[in-house]
Amino acid sequence: MYGYLFRRVLATVPVMLFVAFFVFMLLHMSPGDPAEIIAGNFATPEQVQEIRRALGLERPLHTQFLSWLHSVSQGDLGKSIYSGQDVTRLIAQRIEPTLILTLLTILIAITFAIPMGVLAAWKRNTWIDKTIMSLAVLGFSVPAFVLGYVLIYIGSVSLEIFPTQGYRSIFKDPGSALMHLALPALTLGAVFVALIARMTRATMLDVLSEDYIRTAFAKGLPTHKVLIRHGLKNAMVPIVTTIGLGIALLIGGVVVTESVFAIPGLGRLTVDAVLRKDYPVIQGMILLFSLIYVFLNLLIDLSYVLFDPRIKY
């Protein structure tokens, strides 16, 4: 296992190097002079030259990349052009609401999606199955920003239960923080629930057709034990893989959802950086999201052995 872990970690190095090179080239692939794009249409030549010096654009391209890569490897993502603060500091200030929102979304998705998928497979081709799959299709079809505004109208405007926007730190007021994140988590979780529920149903249908399932029923085991202990456990590998792939949907959905609910997280920071053409912040966000995605995929690969002992590293 340790050899497999070492090889998997080693394999992430070229992936992250490619991502780093792509992120670095974002600034140079933009049409026109990057310094003029960042400075805007009304900047003076002196301001443009100052930005060029600040970004090191007067140096050769390979020298810029190596210098930037060295800084990134030490945790220095540069300074925001708009605010002048360190990008690492900006990320640290905004990571709490995004992290809590992501964890809450995953918790909601797993809590509802897996039982829905198991039930749909067990009640195959009945009205229960059709209802659950119709809800899954609806979850895929409705855009996140539309669902967000609908939930705001229902939960905040009509029922006046949840706050409309904003965020309170969970370390200062846990109850208020969860109330602020409830609607955003439901908005993000809709697609995630639909994805996991459909995969759970498809995988469970294959497992329930196996001989050992029929044998378990023939022995008189209760239905819930057969479905969970013998069925779901053997269907978990594809489900866990789907959960990992769904993290990519969450990363994209966080950007939209935090903008709709005015949550000061990483998604909102990314949107603001794009609108302001704050390239150091954009580069830092892409690197961070890529690193998280690679790390989660590594954890998912390692978790397979917990669900299927036949898997050897």
TrEMBL record:
Per UniProt, the keywords (alphabetical) are: Cell membrane, Membrane, Transmembrane, Transmembrane helix, Transport
From the record, give the transmembrane residue ranges.
9-27, 99-122, 134-157, 177-197, 235-261, 281-307
Main location, first listed in the record? membrane
Q: Where is the ABC transmembrane type-1 domain?
A: 95-300
| Subcellular locations according to the entry | Cell membrane
A Gene Ontology BP annotation from the UniProt entry: transmembrane transport
Q: Which GO terms describe its cellular component?
A: plasma membrane
Q: Which Pfam families match?
A: BPD_transp_1, BPD_transp_1_N
* Signal sequence, start to end: none
Protein topology in the membrane: Multi-pass membrane protein
Tell me which PANTHER family the record gives: DIPEPTIDE TRANSPORT SYSTEM PERMEASE PROTEIN DPPB-RELATED (PTHR43163:SF6)
UniProt similarity note? Belongs to the binding-protein-dependent transport system permease family. OppBC subfamily.
Q: What is this protein called?
A: Peptide/nickel transport system permease protein
Organism, by scientific name, is Natronocella acetinitrilica
Lineage of the native species? Bacteria, Pseudomonadati, Pseudomonadota, Gammaproteobacteria, Chromatiales
